[in-house]
Amino acid sequence: MIDFDPSTFGLAHTYQKEDKDEINTLRMPSAPQVIYKSLNGPTQTNGGNKLNNFKHGTTTLGFVFKEGILIAVDSRASMGSFLSSEQVRKVIEINEYLLGTMAGGAADCQYWLAYLANHCRTYELKNGSKLSVAAASKFLQGILIGYKNSGLSMGCMIAGTDLSGQHLYYIDNDGMRLKGDIFSVGSGSTYAYGVLDNHYKYDMSVNEAVELGIRAIYHATHRDTASGGVVRVYHIHQNGWTKVHDGLDVVDLHYQFAQQKGLVGDGDEAKQRLF
Amino acid sequence: MSGIFEYNGGSIVGMKGKNCIAVACDRRFGQQMSTITTNYQKVFKIQDNILLALSGLNTDIHTFYALMEKEINLYNLKENRKMKPTTFANLVASALYERRFGPFFVTPIVAGLENGKPILATYDSIGCKSDLDDFQVGGTGGNYIYGACEAFFKPDMSPEELEEVIGQSLVSGCDRDALSGWGGVVYVLTEQKITVKILKTKQT
């Protein structure tokens, strides 16, 4: 009997594994069944209120350059205006040659990127060669199209290295899949794009690229309330990925950058009235 | 983040000490998730012994302060004397209730010293005055600051200790609120002087 992986056709609500197959195998959680799908458009996860639109409260960015791909993310998680954590890991290490970034629903991103990791490993074992970045991102897109309009919230980037080089894809819950050189995702992306577009060159060195990534995330954390915490930086090259920075506190960065400009950094440069 | 009180964000806190009183505020002026400036004034000196701290919708902070400034100036001209802090506290309550059906979207804290005794009053947006507690908070980060206040507060603190404690409470509280922070200012009011201290906080 052919074992249909529920996500093969993106029809996650149709097939379920039979119990007897699971006696001698690892218990794999079955893909969630959709109970209600909106007919008119995306299910509104935040009550539809525009002021409540925290769908992608974060800043993540990635860009391709001469030496590979640089990924930089912040680490803040917020529930409305409450900051639930400043230490979240928004880069998910799918395997040694693929990284995924998290934006939107944390649970959605964590689960489906882990699902993708499982799929990549299975492919590697069955076929003897690694799954390409294009194929991995397309697989994820297929899953998300199957859950379209059911309320998933994900704006992730898949970046990795394969035989044809380093590639960066943007995938979101609407089923969009875009290949590109520069992406920034999340509520702070507008601020990050400003810095990124200003200083981006394809011919950067690794150090320059790391500096640019850090600066772009820092600027986004300063202006965007839903971004903050620490900056985590990864570099993808032909041998896989390296974690360049695990947790650079943006508070320290703020005062460092202010000092470099000869300022104090307390927001009082114009010497505002205090009474 | 729905609601008119969450549109601009911001937090304030007031604390009583021994013959002194302190208020502190954050410095953020934002529009929903975007920060516009980090030096917005939220505490105003009404008189040498009265400070008015306001949180809520920034336009109403400014307008309500201008209204109170007008009231105290008129009072000084008509009565030819300074206003007592308890009188001002009552004035704020009535001024807020005057707009009962179209309120100012602010939650004020009045801090003053009357004959050496600290006066601290807080209100909801339509003028319900509460003046019995030793510390009060207002704004989007209020609940988080309450927790820090309960932990750090003790009665009858000296001005230096009070400044330290209120500063810490404000910063700890604002750290958990996405809409407050980006700097802090602490004002300590004693019989002799008002000291103002700018806190170095997270700018994120």
From TrEMBL, chain A:
Chief localisation class: cytoplasm
Keyword Ribosomal protein carried by entry: no
Primary role: Component of the proteasome, a multicatalytic proteinase complex which is characterized by its ability to cleave peptides with Arg, Phe, Tyr, Leu, and Glu adjacent to the leaving group at neutral or slightly basic pH. The proteasome has an ATP-dependent proteolytic activity.
Protein name: Proteasome subunit beta
InterPro entries: Proteasome_bsu_CS, Proteasome_sua/b, Proteasome_suB-type
Signal peptide interval: none
An example Gene Ontology CC term for this record: proteasome core complex
Domain of life: Eukaryota
Quaternary structure and partners: Component of the proteasome complex.
Record's subcellular location: Cytoplasm; Nucleus
Keywords attached to this entry: Cytoplasm, Nucleus, Proteasome, Zymogen
RNA-binding in keyword set: no
Pfam families: Proteasome
GO BP terms: proteolysis involved in protein catabolic process
Family: Belongs to the peptidase T1B family.
Automatic annotation (TrEMBL), chain B:
Any single GO BP term: proteasome-mediated ubiquitin-dependent protein catabolic process
Keywords from the named record: Cytoplasm, Nucleus, Proteasome
GO cellular component, one term: nucleus
NAD as UniProt keyword: no
Transmembrane parts of this sequence: none
PANTHER family referenced in this protein's UniProt entry, alphabetically: METALLOPROTEASE TLDD, PROTEASOME SUBUNIT BETA TYPE-3
Subunit and interaction comment: Component of the proteasome complex.
Protein name in the entry: Proteasome subunit beta
Native species: Paramecium sonneborni
Taxonomic classification: Eukaryota, Sar, Alveolata, Ciliophora, Intramacronucleata
